[in-house]
Amino acid sequence: MSVLVLGIDIGGTNTRFGVVDREGCLHAKGSLRTGDHETLEGFVKAVADGCRSCLAQIGGGKATAVGIGAPNANYYRGTVEHAPNLQWKGVLPLAQLVSEDVGLPTWLTNDANAAALGEQLYGGGRGMKNLVVVTLGTGVGSGYIVAGNLLYGETGFAGELGHVIVEPGGRVCGCGRRGCLEKYASATGLVLTVREKLAAADARGASGADGSPTSLRDLPEATLDAIAIHRAALAGDPLALEAYRDTAEVLGLALANTVAITSPAAVFLSGGLARSGDLLLAPTRSAMERNLHPAFRGVELRISALLEKDGAVLGAAALAFSERHGDDA
Amino acid sequence: MSVLVLGIDIGGTNTRFGVVDREGCLHAKGSLRTGDHETLEGFVKAVADGCRSCLAQIGGGKATAVGIGAPNANYYRGTVEHAPNLQWKGVLPLAQLVSEDVGLPTWLTNDANAAALGEQLYGGGRGMKNLVVVTLGTGVGSGYIVAGNLLYGETGFAGELGHVIVEPGGRVCGCGRRGCLEKYASATGLVLTVREKLAAADARGASGADGSPTSLRDLPEATLDAIAIHRAALAGDPLALEAYRDTAEVLGLALANTVAITSPAAVFLSGGLARSGDLLLAPTRSAMERNLHPAFRGVELRISALLEKDGAVLGAAALAFSERHGDDA
Description:
Two copies of one chain form a homodimer.
Chain A: E1 4-10, E2 14-21, E3 26-33, H1 40-57, E4 66-70, E5 73-74, E6 79-81, E7 91-92, H2 94-102, E8 106-110, H3 111-122, E9 131-136, E10 140-146, E11 149-150, H4 187-204, H5 226-234, H6 238-262, E12 266-270, H7 278-290, E13 300-303, H8 311-324
Parallel strand pairs in A: 1-4, 4-8, 9-12, 12-13
Antiparallel strand pairs in A: 1-2, 2-3, 5-6, 6-7, 9-10, 10-11
Helix pairs in contact in A: 1-2, 3-8, 4-6, 5-6, 6-7
């Protein structure tokens, strides 16, 4: 049997884990609800038990390392720090706790970095030395691979594309500033854009964006989410389509600007909003290419090849492979 | 005697070269006018002769390698490609030609990348693994060092901060697009900002920015350059000071945004406009810090330590050291 590692993806709602080989085959997997565990120690124990149970399922196979993807993770320190979506506060020494329980060398990185490693090892970025993965979910995350390695920078927090300011003085962001990309190009941002358009149309006494009716106006406030907007856009709703175009315009310019810094071979879109497929991809590509400096023509924009797979677990496994086995496995 | 290399800085007007040791001491140097040489072969011969003469001056010392910094240089190919400010058109195999004439291994990179290497090896960035040098001259160039190495990306052209679009639909740039940083935060950009302010004041029937008189109005069009604006600002001219503040605002935001991508320990400003010193540095730092995501607080903004030295030749020499001797010299 080929070399196996454990990949663990910690999210605010669910934590998923699995046993993965070098080719990206998931031999066994499991999950648990993150919020069910009051103490961090109890959570770590449950994850470790789940991993052991996965290994038992495949006949007692042995893993060589553990990779963890988590929000607000600091790779250098192996910690999760002040994650707003987790119930344990402060600085959590997760890599150490998991390593002690599982008895294997363990590495930790943030979820977008894990996604970038997964794309490179198992996804559309195979063989690429320079790529970017942008995760468009509740927020916007990003992982940059340059010259074959993850970009961490001085702090370990490099690759915060979601907190590039694209609209000075614009929408208030959770980070305390205004106009960050993630308030425009995330699922949350898409909803805000639709709300602003509805309010503007109200102010003009019109129904939709260009005065034509929009089905989104009839939705109860609480159900106006990115999925509802996606559905409306697919049905040809003009306001929903306009909101997608606006989102793509902001995202495309931000991507062209970041391509000018790191010059990747390709940019991959992942996360829930990337499930919009061509509704988002086509106008974003158009905006990116229109704003691209000629030296970078040819950079590809694609949907992540791992979007509909267990991409986050594969990404975490990719971290374990790259740290434990480098290029030799 | 310690290991010696040759550093060559090719500019549109002058080409400078010298013999440099590992500590950044320039043992001998020379220069020639780039434009005096009609053929590329004649230019290469003159540069090689100059380098040989430098080595002769220090008693026939031997160099181990050559580093060249040049505009529009492609590190991967060793070529200068379609440089608008050089008289030789097309793709110039400069590294190969110099190597053949001088008889030493030769590396070529763009001038801003060389400046970044120089800052790291000889300047304010000694010991830093992550830094950015931004050259503010006629245009804006930038060199990024990440995890100890220059960032080249897929194309070799990574680090084009000057062509990040900061003002969609803004000033026309030489690259064919609009709103690039270099049309705002270069010497050229500062002059454009002053011209726009004078024109706006004219339209309002006022003299200066806030209606107060400005000495810049009395300058003949041809002499309104960055040096004149610097002088006026030092004398307290309100329009000149306002132009500096506007420049700093645009530059500071662009720096905060690029820090969020590569997370350097420090950003160094170089090039002619950086000679403005605190007139530019203080308001740029203020704008950068105001726009910085909390994760990156503590990143330094400084004037290049090589600004008033032969920084470009030292930078080219640093390339030769890093390629030929890595960390062992």
